[in-house]
Amino acid sequence: MLLAFAAFPESVDPCFPEQWHTRQAAETRSLTRWPPARIHQLEAEKIRLQKKIAVLPQHDPKVLPDHLGYHSSCEIPGSEGSSPVSTIDLKMEWPRMVSIAMAPAFNPQEPGDGPYAFPTRFKIEVRDAGSGTFSEVVNWMDEDFPDPGPYPVFFSDINLTIDQVRITVPRVERESGVAYFALGELYLFLEQEGQLADNMAVWASVDVSESESFDMPPLWDGRYLCDNIVGLGVPLSGEKNSVKDLVIPYENESLSEPVQIVLDLGQMQKVGRVDLWPAEAPYLLAIPSIGFPREITLELSADPEFKTSETIHVENVGRRMQREDRLSVLCRAYKARYVRIVMDDLPEFMGQRMLGLGEISVSEYGQVFSVGCDVSSKGIPAGYVDQLPRLVDGYTRSRRILPDGEWIKGLAYRRPLDRRLARVEDELVEAREAWRRMELQFSIWIGGLLCIGLLGAMGLQRLQRRRILKKLKLRITRDLHDEVGSNLGSITLAAKRMEDAGSSPEDLSELSLMAREASASLRDVVWLTDQSVIRLPALLQKLAERAERILSGVELSIDLAPDCPGRIVPLTFKRHLILFFKEAVHNCARHSHATWVRIVIAAGEEQLTLSVQDNGCGFDPSQKSDGWGVDSMQKRAHELGGTMVLQSTPGNGTTVSLTIPLSTLMKKTDYLYKTSN
């Protein structure tokens, strides 16, 4: 399978700084600042990038234990004997059109640091096979090449038939003060009819030489620059499929002879390379190269009986498969139709022999001949023979096997997409966090405004109710004063005129008393309505004023406590005290026929004492009488938390005393009692 250039842009990596700057300018994005819209834009871009990346090769770089690549010598720039540049030359026996790729090296001492010492500045020149002159196809000598990270770089669109490639790297001092660079692998991908073919750099017909190098096998060596061993992972697609590899456990069968698998290519082909892929372990077991044979012999023949054949014995299979990559066997373009793989020394797993193969690929110049060919075997259990086509389906580890050219070019094309995706994901996290903070701020502001609005509405409502109640109180007070007060005043005047006209004194006196009591009650109601808070001194003063209005025509003596505590009086306390006092004064005015009355009100920090004494007719307290309202007064005294003492004898007047603890000002009493009024 060959890769059409249409699968990727013509030039994956910029050959000159001007191309890089043009690309950077073209990638400028315009994102809105409003977080929800910005999140939507970034999510849409993320999906687009993920779709593009999904069809590209999987990216799974790994640090290899050996064969790390090429390492230049370490020199201090400007020191005696140091060279200003290092060169790598690749001379081809047969002139070809090629694309050039460079893979980074990885440092096993610092596996988390990414690529190791990739050249920051370099140029690539190619020699035209016809004219023999060199031309620059890549030049990054005056500006640093963008860091490729753990990805290869790929230069194409050279459009020349060349026989030599020269890479020049200047001595650029690093942070350590020493100049050096390293490369993991160099690729020369053959171009044929607009398609990428095989990697010529691994052919024997390409001679690789370096002006200088630091060799320390098996880690660094100039020979490792083109050995097709690189830490970029394996050439597989990113998309997964449901196909499976061939994994055969030999439970009871004895393996007295090696296992043989024969591929019939259908016609004679020039076989340049045979790749054997290890199988993926079943049940998601993390076991690399499970069941891969430790001894392999490859035979190529035009005869199905293999009477004459080209035989290649593969050495060091176990050590090579530690990289979990394919086992590549170069065959020097031997013509053959039949390929036989003889496998021996199968490894054991859980006490039994096991054979594991993912794919057998036969190719030349990148063109694969083995996909879908006929497969036969010897030494494969009968129950697994029908699974042999898995070896030639073009898939392993549930992924499509990619030609090296498509793999390396796809990884180079994937590099900016992966980086842009990482930036988009970071920006998406920032945008979501910004929107979360903004939502929180909005919630706080809206909640605060709602609370302020609610409190304001409650305050306005309360103020409005107060205004309405105040207006209502004023109106009621005014109406009571104007209407009822006027009428009571008229009653008083009429009673006076009737008295002057010679009406019955008792009737007129009763009428006058009722008018005075009604007028006093009206004043009390108006006063209580008009006051929002009433304190004890004001209440006692009001009681004294009431007595003065009711006991008209009687010698009245009032002794009011001068130092009364200014405690707030509850409504129920006011009510019971006023009605108790009213009953006592009413009895003096209506029943006692007294000529003088003495009222004493004393208040200290602990208790309140109220005494009403007259020189009236008196009565016998043991004789029950509804007219005096004594029972009602006793109950009101009890509700006030105090005690009442009544002293009276017929003909000797009456004295009523009430003692109340001031602590009862906090006690709620709210009962109705019958009075004598």
From TrEMBL:
The chain crosses the membrane at residues 442-463. It is found in: Cytoplasm. The keyword Cytoplasm applies. It comes from the Bacteria. Residues 479-664 form the Histidine kinase domain. SUPFAM superfamilies: ATPase domain of HSP90 chaperone/DNA topoisomerase II/histidine kinase. Pfam families: HATPase_c (PF02518), HisKA_3 (PF07730). Its main location: cytoplasm. It is an enzyme of class 2 (transferase). It catalyses: ATP + protein L-histidine = ADP + protein N-phospho-L-histidine. Its cofactor is [4Fe-4S] cluster. One of its GO terms (molecular function) is 4 iron, 4 sulfur cluster binding. Member of the two-component regulatory system NreB/NreC involved in the control of dissimilatory nitrate/nitrite reduction in response to oxygen. NreB functions as a direct oxygen sensor histidine kinase which is autophosphorylated, in the absence of oxygen, probably at the conserved histidine residue, and transfers its phosphate group probably to a conserved aspartate residue of NreC. NreB/NreC activates the expression of the nitrate (narGHJI) and nitrite (nir) reductase operons, as well as the putative nitrate transporter gene narT. This is Oxygen sensor histidine kinase NreB.
